[in-house]
TrEMBL record:
Pfam families: Glycos_transf_2 (PF00535)
Sequence ranges assigned to domain Glycosyltransferase 2-like in this UniProt record: 7-132
Protein name per Swiss-Prot or TrEMBL: Glycosyl transferase
Record lineage: Bacteria, Bacillati, Actinomycetota, Actinomycetes, Kitasatosporales
Family per similarity comment: Belongs to the glycosyltransferase 2 family.
SUPFAM superfamilies assigned: Nucleotide-diphospho-sugar transferases
Keywords tagged on the record: Glycosyltransferase, Transferase
Molecular functions (GO terms): glycosyltransferase activity
Organism of origin: Streptomyces naganishii JCM 4654
Gene3D superfamilies per the UniProt record, alphabetical: Spore Coat Polysaccharide Biosynthesis Protein SpsA, Chain A (3.90.550.10)
Length: 298
Protein backbone atom coordinates (compact mmCIF):
# COMPACT_ATOMS: atom_id res chain seq x y z
CA UNK A 1 0.00 0.00 0.00
CA UNK A 2 2.90 2.37 -0.65
CA UNK A 3 1.50 5.90 -0.96
CA UNK A 4 3.83 8.54 -2.44
CA UNK A 5 1.58 11.54 -1.79
CA UNK A 6 2.79 12.53 1.69
CA UNK A 7 6.13 13.27 3.34
CA UNK A 8 6.51 13.19 7.12
CA UNK A 9 8.51 15.93 8.86
CA UNK A 10 9.75 15.56 12.44
CA UNK A 11 11.66 18.09 14.55
CA UNK A 12 13.69 16.95 17.55
CA UNK A 13 16.01 18.22 20.25
CA UNK A 14 17.80 15.94 22.75
CA UNK A 15 15.16 13.20 22.72
CA UNK A 16 17.08 10.38 21.08
CA UNK A 17 15.17 7.41 22.60
CA UNK A 18 11.77 8.95 21.82
CA UNK A 19 12.79 9.88 18.29
CA UNK A 20 14.11 6.40 17.51
CA UNK A 21 10.83 4.90 18.74
CA UNK A 22 8.89 7.30 16.51
CA UNK A 23 11.06 6.48 13.49
CA UNK A 24 10.60 2.76 14.15
CA UNK A 25 6.82 3.25 14.06
CA UNK A 26 6.93 5.42 10.92
CA UNK A 27 9.10 2.80 9.19
CA UNK A 28 6.34 0.23 9.80
CA UNK A 29 3.62 2.28 8.08
CA UNK A 30 2.09 0.66 5.00
CA UNK A 31 2.33 4.02 3.17
CA UNK A 32 6.16 3.95 3.42
CA UNK A 33 6.40 7.76 3.45
CA UNK A 34 9.63 9.65 2.96
CA UNK A 35 10.67 11.03 6.36
CA UNK A 36 12.66 14.18 7.14
CA UNK A 37 14.13 14.78 10.59
CA UNK A 38 15.44 18.20 11.55
CA UNK A 39 17.81 17.75 14.49
CA UNK A 40 17.58 21.10 16.26
CA UNK A 41 21.08 21.14 17.70
CA UNK A 42 20.88 17.99 19.83
CA UNK A 43 23.90 17.15 21.99
CA UNK A 44 22.87 13.59 22.94
CA UNK A 45 24.01 11.80 19.80
CA UNK A 46 20.64 12.02 18.08
CA UNK A 47 21.99 12.60 14.56
CA UNK A 48 24.46 9.72 14.75
CA UNK A 49 21.77 7.38 16.06
CA UNK A 50 19.37 8.32 13.26
CA UNK A 51 22.06 7.83 10.62
CA UNK A 52 22.92 4.43 12.09
CA UNK A 53 19.44 3.00 12.72
CA UNK A 54 17.44 4.77 10.00
CA UNK A 55 19.79 5.51 7.10
CA UNK A 56 16.90 6.18 4.70
CA UNK A 57 15.64 9.13 6.78
CA UNK A 58 16.55 12.53 5.33
CA UNK A 59 18.46 14.12 8.21
CA UNK A 60 18.89 17.89 8.45
CA UNK A 61 21.34 19.39 10.95
CA UNK A 62 21.09 23.19 11.13
CA UNK A 63 23.52 23.25 14.08
CA UNK A 64 21.22 25.15 16.42
CA UNK A 65 17.73 24.93 17.84
CA UNK A 66 15.37 26.50 15.31
CA UNK A 67 12.20 25.44 17.09
CA UNK A 68 9.22 25.12 14.74
CA UNK A 69 11.23 26.71 11.93
CA UNK A 70 13.03 23.38 11.69
CA UNK A 71 9.84 22.21 9.97
CA UNK A 72 10.16 25.01 7.41
CA UNK A 73 13.70 23.87 6.67
CA UNK A 74 12.45 20.39 5.83
CA UNK A 75 9.38 21.51 3.86
CA UNK A 76 11.65 23.41 1.46
CA UNK A 77 12.93 20.00 0.36
CA UNK A 78 9.58 18.20 0.25
CA UNK A 79 8.55 17.06 -3.22
CA UNK A 80 5.14 15.56 -2.41
CA UNK A 81 1.82 17.46 -2.56
CA UNK A 82 1.17 16.89 1.15
CA UNK A 83 3.29 17.12 4.27
CA UNK A 84 2.50 15.49 7.61
CA UNK A 85 4.00 16.78 10.82
CA UNK A 86 4.59 14.80 13.97
CA UNK A 87 6.78 15.37 16.99
CA UNK A 88 9.56 13.11 18.15
CA UNK A 89 7.20 11.63 20.74
CA UNK A 90 4.28 10.97 18.37
CA UNK A 91 3.61 8.80 15.32
CA UNK A 92 0.88 8.27 12.70
CA UNK A 93 -1.34 5.20 12.77
CA UNK A 94 -1.34 2.86 9.75
CA UNK A 95 -3.56 4.24 7.00
CA UNK A 96 -3.95 7.70 8.52
CA UNK A 97 -1.62 9.40 6.05
CA UNK A 98 -3.43 7.87 3.07
CA UNK A 99 -6.78 8.81 4.60
CA UNK A 100 -5.71 12.44 4.99
CA UNK A 101 -4.32 12.51 1.44
CA UNK A 102 -7.63 11.14 0.13
CA UNK A 103 -9.50 14.00 1.81
CA UNK A 104 -7.09 16.58 0.41
CA UNK A 105 -7.34 15.02 -3.05
CA UNK A 106 -11.11 15.13 -2.88
CA UNK A 107 -11.55 18.72 -1.69
CA UNK A 108 -9.56 21.37 -3.55
CA UNK A 109 -10.15 24.12 -0.94
CA UNK A 110 -9.11 21.97 2.01
CA UNK A 111 -5.72 23.05 3.33
CA UNK A 112 -5.18 20.92 6.43
CA UNK A 113 -6.50 17.78 8.12
CA UNK A 114 -6.02 17.23 11.86
CA UNK A 115 -6.26 13.70 13.26
CA UNK A 116 -7.64 12.26 16.48
CA UNK A 117 -4.92 12.15 19.16
CA UNK A 118 -4.54 9.03 21.32
CA UNK A 119 -2.29 9.36 24.37
CA UNK A 120 -0.01 6.43 25.13
CA UNK A 121 0.74 4.16 26.90
CA UNK A 122 -2.89 4.02 28.11
CA UNK A 123 -4.53 4.53 24.72
CA UNK A 124 -6.78 7.29 26.04
CA UNK A 125 -8.08 10.16 23.97
CA UNK A 126 -6.39 13.52 24.42
CA UNK A 127 -8.87 15.94 26.09
CA UNK A 128 -8.37 18.43 23.28
CA UNK A 129 -9.99 15.99 20.83
CA UNK A 130 -13.42 16.74 22.26
CA UNK A 131 -12.85 20.40 21.49
CA UNK A 132 -11.84 19.58 17.90
CA UNK A 133 -14.82 17.27 17.49
CA UNK A 134 -17.23 19.95 18.72
CA UNK A 135 -15.60 22.95 17.05
CA UNK A 136 -17.98 25.93 16.91
CA UNK A 137 -16.43 27.24 13.69
CA UNK A 138 -18.99 27.23 10.84
CA UNK A 139 -17.85 25.63 7.61
CA UNK A 140 -19.16 24.89 4.13
CA UNK A 141 -21.39 21.85 3.59
CA UNK A 142 -18.74 20.03 1.53
CA UNK A 143 -16.24 20.01 4.40
CA UNK A 144 -15.67 16.36 5.42
CA UNK A 145 -15.51 17.13 9.15
CA UNK A 146 -15.82 19.97 11.67
CA UNK A 147 -14.22 23.24 10.55
CA UNK A 148 -11.30 24.34 12.72
CA UNK A 149 -9.93 27.76 13.52
CA UNK A 150 -6.44 26.40 14.16
CA UNK A 151 -4.59 23.09 14.11
CA UNK A 152 -2.11 21.04 16.12
CA UNK A 153 1.16 20.78 14.23
CA UNK A 154 2.03 17.38 15.70
CA UNK A 155 -1.21 15.86 14.40
CA UNK A 156 -1.86 17.51 11.04
CA UNK A 157 -1.37 16.86 7.32
CA UNK A 158 -1.17 20.02 5.23
CA UNK A 159 -1.13 20.92 1.56
CA UNK A 160 2.56 21.61 0.88
CA UNK A 161 2.02 24.54 -1.48
CA UNK A 162 -0.46 26.19 0.88
CA UNK A 163 2.05 25.92 3.74
CA UNK A 164 4.77 27.50 1.61
CA UNK A 165 2.60 30.34 0.29
CA UNK A 166 1.48 31.21 3.82
CA UNK A 167 5.14 31.50 4.84
CA UNK A 168 5.34 28.48 7.14
CA UNK A 169 5.97 28.97 10.85
CA UNK A 170 7.10 32.44 11.85
CA UNK A 171 10.72 32.46 13.09
CA UNK A 172 9.88 34.92 15.87
CA UNK A 173 7.44 32.52 17.54
CA UNK A 174 9.97 29.68 17.84
CA UNK A 175 7.84 27.02 19.60
CA UNK A 176 4.69 26.97 21.69
CA UNK A 177 1.31 27.73 20.12
CA UNK A 178 3.10 28.61 16.89
CA UNK A 179 0.25 27.13 14.81
CA UNK A 180 -2.27 29.89 15.55
CA UNK A 181 -0.66 32.51 13.33
CA UNK A 182 -0.09 30.12 10.43
CA UNK A 183 -3.65 28.75 10.67
CA UNK A 184 -5.11 32.25 10.48
CA UNK A 185 -2.96 33.11 7.48
CA UNK A 186 -4.04 29.89 5.75
CA UNK A 187 -7.67 30.83 6.37
CA UNK A 188 -7.03 34.33 5.05
CA UNK A 189 -5.63 32.73 1.89
CA UNK A 190 -8.92 30.90 1.43
CA UNK A 191 -8.04 27.47 2.84
CA UNK A 192 -10.27 25.46 5.18
CA UNK A 193 -9.01 23.35 8.08
CA UNK A 194 -10.86 20.28 9.31
CA UNK A 195 -10.80 17.55 11.95
CA UNK A 196 -11.00 13.93 10.77
CA UNK A 197 -12.41 11.55 13.39
CA UNK A 198 -11.33 8.35 11.64
CA UNK A 199 -7.64 9.30 11.35
CA UNK A 200 -5.36 8.68 14.33
CA UNK A 201 -2.00 9.81 15.62
CA UNK A 202 -0.43 8.40 18.79
CA UNK A 203 1.29 10.64 21.34
CA UNK A 204 3.52 9.29 24.10
CA UNK A 205 4.42 12.54 25.93
CA UNK A 206 8.12 12.88 26.59
CA UNK A 207 9.27 13.72 30.10
CA UNK A 208 12.19 15.63 28.57
CA UNK A 209 10.49 18.99 28.26
CA UNK A 210 10.76 22.45 29.77
CA UNK A 211 7.08 23.06 30.48
CA UNK A 212 7.75 26.40 32.15
CA UNK A 213 9.53 27.79 29.08
CA UNK A 214 6.91 26.33 26.76
CA UNK A 215 4.17 28.09 28.71
CA UNK A 216 6.10 31.36 28.70
CA UNK A 217 6.62 31.18 24.96
CA UNK A 218 2.99 30.15 24.45
CA UNK A 219 1.68 33.21 26.29
CA UNK A 220 4.07 35.48 24.38
CA UNK A 221 3.09 33.93 21.05
CA UNK A 222 -0.60 34.25 21.82
CA UNK A 223 -0.09 37.95 22.51
CA UNK A 224 1.92 38.41 19.33
CA UNK A 225 -0.67 36.65 17.21
CA UNK A 226 -3.43 38.72 18.80
CA UNK A 227 -1.65 41.99 18.12
CA UNK A 228 -0.50 40.99 14.63
CA UNK A 229 -3.84 39.82 13.22
CA UNK A 230 -6.84 40.80 15.37
CA UNK A 231 -8.75 44.11 15.11
CA UNK A 232 -8.06 46.59 17.89
CA UNK A 233 -11.06 45.88 20.12
CA UNK A 234 -10.85 42.05 20.10
CA UNK A 235 -7.08 42.33 20.53
CA UNK A 236 -7.48 44.49 23.61
CA UNK A 237 -10.17 42.19 25.02
CA UNK A 238 -8.03 39.09 24.57
CA UNK A 239 -4.95 40.80 26.02
CA UNK A 240 -6.88 41.81 29.14
CA UNK A 241 -8.34 38.32 29.44
CA UNK A 242 -4.86 36.79 29.36
CA UNK A 243 -3.59 39.31 31.90
CA UNK A 244 -6.38 38.28 34.28
CA UNK A 245 -6.21 34.52 33.80
CA UNK A 246 -2.59 33.41 33.32
CA UNK A 247 -0.71 32.27 36.44
CA UNK A 248 0.84 35.12 38.42
CA UNK A 249 4.43 33.98 38.21
CA UNK A 250 7.78 34.83 36.66
CA UNK A 251 7.06 32.90 33.45
CA UNK A 252 3.93 34.95 32.77
CA UNK A 253 5.65 38.23 33.59
CA UNK A 254 8.52 37.40 31.24
CA UNK A 255 6.05 36.46 28.51
CA UNK A 256 4.31 39.83 28.69
CA UNK A 257 7.65 41.65 28.87
CA UNK A 258 9.02 39.84 25.80
CA UNK A 259 5.81 40.46 23.88
CA UNK A 260 5.81 44.17 24.74
CA UNK A 261 9.47 44.60 23.83
CA UNK A 262 8.66 43.49 20.27
CA UNK A 263 5.91 46.07 19.68
CA UNK A 264 7.90 47.90 16.96
CA UNK A 265 8.11 44.62 15.02
CA UNK A 266 4.42 43.91 15.65
CA UNK A 267 3.38 47.30 14.30
CA UNK A 268 5.53 46.85 11.20
CA UNK A 269 4.13 43.39 10.50
CA UNK A 270 0.51 43.94 11.61
CA UNK A 271 -2.04 42.77 9.03
CA UNK A 272 -5.63 42.46 10.23
CA UNK A 273 -7.52 39.36 9.13
CA UNK A 274 -10.52 39.49 6.79
CA UNK A 275 -13.84 39.92 8.65
CA UNK A 276 -15.04 36.38 7.87
CA UNK A 277 -11.88 34.85 9.37
CA UNK A 278 -12.08 37.15 12.39
CA UNK A 279 -15.67 36.02 12.92
CA UNK A 280 -14.55 32.39 13.10
CA UNK A 281 -11.84 33.28 15.62
CA UNK A 282 -14.34 35.01 17.89
CA UNK A 283 -16.47 31.87 18.02
CA UNK A 284 -13.40 29.77 18.68
CA UNK A 285 -12.18 32.11 21.40
CA UNK A 286 -15.51 31.96 23.24
CA UNK A 287 -15.39 28.15 23.11
CA UNK A 288 -11.80 27.98 24.36
CA UNK A 289 -12.63 30.06 27.41
CA UNK A 290 -14.94 27.27 28.53
CA UNK A 291 -12.51 24.46 27.68
CA UNK A 292 -10.47 22.44 30.15
CA UNK A 293 -8.12 21.08 27.45
CA UNK A 294 -4.39 21.72 27.68
CA UNK A 295 -3.18 25.12 26.48
CA UNK A 296 0.20 26.77 26.34
CA UNK A 297 -1.38 29.90 27.82
CA UNK A 298 -2.95 28.21 30.86
Amino acid sequence: MTDPRTTVVVITHNRRPELLRTLDRLAELPEHPEVFVTDNGSTDGTSAAVARHHPHVRLLRPGRNLGAVGRNLAVRRVRTPYVAFCDDDSWWAPGALSGAADLLDRHAALGAVTARIVVEPDGTEDPIVEELRNSPVPGPRWLPGPALGSFLAAATVLRTDAFRRAGGFNPRLWLGGEEELLAADLAADGWWLTYAEDLTIHHHPSVARDSRRRRRDGIRNTLWFTWLRRPARPALRRTLHLARTVPRDTASLRAFAEAGAALPWVLRERRVLPPEVEGRLRLLEDSQRRSTARRYTG
